[in-house]
Amino acid sequence: MESEWDPLRTLGVVTAVCLLLWATWVVGHTVYVYLLPQARRGAPWLRAHGAWAVVTGATSGIGRAYAHELARRGLNIVLISRSLSKLEHEAKEIERLHGKITRIIQADFTGGLEIYGAIEAGLKDLEIGILVNNVGMQYTQGLKKLLDCDNVAKRLLDIINCNILSVVQMTGIVLPQMVTRGKGIIINISSGSEARPCPLLAVYAATKAFVRSFSMAVGAEYFSQGVDVQTVSPYMVSTNMTQNSHWGVNAEDFARQALDTLGLTSHTPGCLSHTLQTFLVFFVPNWFSLSRWGVKLASLWASKYNAKFGK
Predict the structure, then answer these.
(1) CA 244 to CA 129: how far, in whole Å?
(2) Which of 82, 111, 156, 300 has the smallest count of CB within 10 Å of its CB?
(3) Which domains, ranges and CATH numbers included, belong to the chain?
């Protein structure tokens, strides 16, 4: 009589058990990170890493929201961005609203290595507990093919400098003192597009894939020395980059929820709604999104998106 436990049935059972275990872990992890307030680290835990937080791209969107939320939780803030007038405005607002000390550093992150000497000098002698590598850009407004922008070579260099070089250089500046003190947190803002190649966002998604890979590797290298590296990979957040889309979560709410996950996970979409989006995107196979029909469907959606926002 043929055995009931033939190889094919055994493989099916093992696969089913693995999927069940994976689903159980996902649900359990989601509940632990987002739905158990008692598991969250408090503001004193955050401040214990150092008196200062440094935020790049700090005058708008997610960066501005992180700067204000970190100040609300008791940290002094170094704001780094391109516009001096916006920096001065946000510094005054943080001091007025949260009563914390601020410092501003003007820097254009599309520049090369030459900008980092001034940044390093501006951070000298500060006890930096948290670094938020937030600054980022797309190489063209809206969703378009690689060559559908003016001055392609310059735009591509700008996005690489802004999205990749800034993360590496800022980490290199701040990490040594964190290692010396045996504590510190580095938050690298990535994107949900990091997980797979994204037609019509080709370079942007590729730079965010770098951010994720870099963050995970550096986090593994320095975890034993007291430094936590967290990758935050949001989907749609209502910011200037997304034309303040009503589809996106509010930047202030996003920053608050994302900061609540510190100490609980090293990689997060930032909030519960984006975690659910990550789960749904998992079911769209790469082969389809990279196929001729997938690209056509994306182009159709992009044309409506770009027309709506005049891009």
Answers:
(1) 31
(2) 300
(3) 39-284 (3.40.50.720)
DSSP annotation string for 58-119: TTSHHHHHHHHHHHHTT-EEEEEES-HHHHHHHHHHHHHHH---EEEEE--TTS-GGGHHHH
| Residues classed as catalytic | 204
For residue 149, the 8-state DSSP code is S
Residue 138 per-residue DSSP state = -
Beta carbons of 190 and 215 less than 8 angstroms apart: yes
pLDDT along the chain (311 residues), means of 10: 67 88 89 91 96 97 97 98 97 98 98 97 96 92 83 93 98 98 98 92 95 98 98 85 64 95 95 86 85 88 66 52
Closest to 109 (Cα-Cα) out of 46, 164, 150? 164
**Strand-pair partners of 56:** 80
- Measured CA to CA, the distance from residue 103 to residue 121 in angstroms comes to 12
- Among residues 243, 171, 164, 165, the alpha carbon closest in space to that of 208 is found at 164
Phi, psi at 139, each rounded to 5°: -85, -10
pTM (2 d.p.): 0.90
Tokens of 286: 């790469």
